[in-house]
Specification:
By secondary structure, this protein is mainly beta. It has one domain: Gamma-B Crystallin, domain 1 (Sandwich). Helix content is about 10%, strand content about 40%. The strands form 2 sheets. Strands 1, 2, 3, 4, 5 and 8 form a 6-stranded antiparallel beta sheet that branches. A hairpin with a 3-residue loop joins strand 6 and strand 7. The radius of gyration is 17 Å and the shape is globular. The chain starts with a helix and ends with a strand. It is a peripheral membrane protein.
């Protein structure tokens, strides 16, 4: 019986869905040629983590400085993955104005879980960014 308990616990932990859902892990943010990607922004998030990090993707290279996001991307990102040893600084208004926040290496499947001031959150709120890697 004592051997069965750790085995059941291990199986239960494997069966629990991870908080990353469909999002890639930061170590997987690489191009096919092996070069790094600083971050990826995804248009779709969902109350269910398994449905996050889907839809159109904006890949950001190290050193990218975008005071104005490409057409169709301003205030649309709902999920974010930041590569290993990288960080992305985002602004709520174009031209690097408004509220700002730094996201370090990690997976952020639901940006609505990250506060932007008292009443807002970062889902559909990114209008400018700067991404760097170390």
């Amino acid at each position: 019986m004592s051997l069965l308990c750790p085995l059941l616990l291990a199986l239960a932990l494997v069966a629990v869905p991870g908080a990353h859902g469909n999002c890639p892990v930061p170590a997987d943010l690489k191009k096919s040629d092996g070069t790094r990607t600083c971050a990826r922004l995804y248009e779709k998030s969902d109350p269910y983590y398994d449905n996050c990090c889907q839809g159109p993707v904006l890949s950001v290279e190290p050193g990218t400085d975008l005071p104005y996001l490409p057409s169709g991307w301003s205030n649309t990102a709902s999920s974010l993955v930041v590569g290993q040893r990288c960080e992305i600084t985002v602004w709520s208004l174009p031209g690097k104005h408004g509220k700002t926040r730094k996201f370090t290496a990690g997976t952020y499947p639901r940006l609505e879980e990250y506060r932007k001031g008292i009443f807002g959150d970062w889902s559909d709120s990114i209008s400018a960014l700067y991404c760097k890697c170390y």
